[in-house]
Design goal:
The chain is an alpha+beta fold. The protein contains 24 helices and 16 strands. A hairpin with a 7-residue loop joins strand 10 and strand 11.
Amino acid sequence: MAFPPSFIDELVARNPIEDVVGQYVNLRRSGANLFGLCPFHGEKTASFSVAPDKGIYYCFGCHKGGGVINFQMEIEGLSYPDAVRALAKRAGMTVPEDEQYESRYHQQERLWALCKEAARFFHRQLSAPAGAEGLAYARKRGMTKAILTQFGIGFAPNSYDALLKAMKQKGYTEEELLAADLVSKSRNPEKSGHVYDRFRNRLMFPIIDVRGNVIGFGGRVMDDSTPKYLNSSETLIFNKRKNLFALNLAKKSKLGYLILVEGYMDAIALHQYGFDCAVASLGTALTEDGASLLSRYTEQVVLIYDGDQAGQNATKRAIPILEKAGLQVKVLQMRDAKDPDEFLKKFGADRFRLLLEESSNRIEYQLNAIRKKYDLGEDDQRVKFLQESAELIGTLGSAVQREVYGGRVAEAAKISPDAMKLEVDRARKRLQYQQKKKQETIDLAPARALQPKSRTIRYDNMKSAMAEESVIAQVLREPALLDQAGELKEDMFSSGLLGRVYAQLRQRHEMGLEVSAAVLTDLSGDEMSHITGILQRNQEPVSEQAFQDCIRTIRAEHQAAGVSTEEDLLAFRNQLKERKGLRS
């Protein structure tokens, strides 16, 4: 939605970016800017910069950037209107009414409240006669009364309309129940329009986001029907890729790491036995969004997936996703039990704690996985094991790590450490050569190197785009230059994004409003990061001559592209008139 520009200006002014960011990042001053560890990717050296005078942030590592609204959107996973609402609440401001936005936000609030009421209903049913089977199952699985209360676990009665009737009595409509995926509509032509409870005869696990809102449910069936676990579908308030079960509790843990498991029961069992840092993915493989969410609350993740082939495959897929998010990864392989829940019940918390201490880092885990692929009693298999292991070890940047792991592999294959070192060095040289060739390709194509970091943004005319970037950067530092922009218009820009930004800045200048990156609206996160990056890269002094040179370049490239300006079109029409007069 479009908030009044004056409201956005006041909102930004009353939410200093250093104060808002400072709630999440430990900032230290260095010159005019503040620096800290980026909250959006793992790093050991602070590359996250906040410029209070410009009202922007920018990470030189992951290239995310923007103003205070963008930061609130990114850090809390909010939409633009919701981020504005959150900052307005922080500053004690009243958000201007907008029917479309108010309607959408009101719907979200209704669904949050509805899911909370549904969770209360399910929890009450667990202690009622209708939930006797569910309660017996929960006790059989070792869940205490305290843990049932802590997680809000409940029971969906074996009824087609128990929840439907209860929620209608609370004032909720069938349309809202459908929107929350709590009821389903019959596909039977004879019962057209009939709705019924989606969750029936199931032990219910509320899914709660990091802000404490109930956003969905998972249900474990009590009989042999399928699916065994039924999860909420995507709704206005629930996205399974961007949430993790029990993170609302685990984010408060003081253990210094998070444990990632496959299912609800594993996470609950770990919490019950004192490991309050456990979370579970929501019925799907770990996603980049899930890994990014984890990285906000920890630097280290211990992966504990099931020991079967499916679990091991999931582990292999999860490792690079977690490392891409900047997380240190350790892998715990279950012994004498198929999952953490079973292990804890058989051996207790102390034995599990020892198992945690013995968990391997990802290199040890991957080397062990390679080892299992080959029969070292056969020479050709032994050679393949050594070669594949050398390829992995060659990727390590530390010479000490290469020597240690190389020595272990050599011992396992019964060869000398020196021979293994030679193989690792060869593998490392091949890797360095490949990286060098890749860099040479980039260096030989400077236009490619100058392309925006985000794949969603592309420059078709690099010469014009560089001039356009300079215009944007200079205007953001000295808005008065817009008075000298003359007939430079949005449609003359080769980059649609830069043209839109220029038009917005010029409009604000003409309205006498603030001109800064912090108040730009209608831009995606990638687009805002790109604009902030432009401002960080273009640090040359403001120059009227340079500004005019850039405008001439933009106009020239626009005309060369065959797109006529109004003056060109008028001249062309006059030529047609003259030719028509000669023919007559």
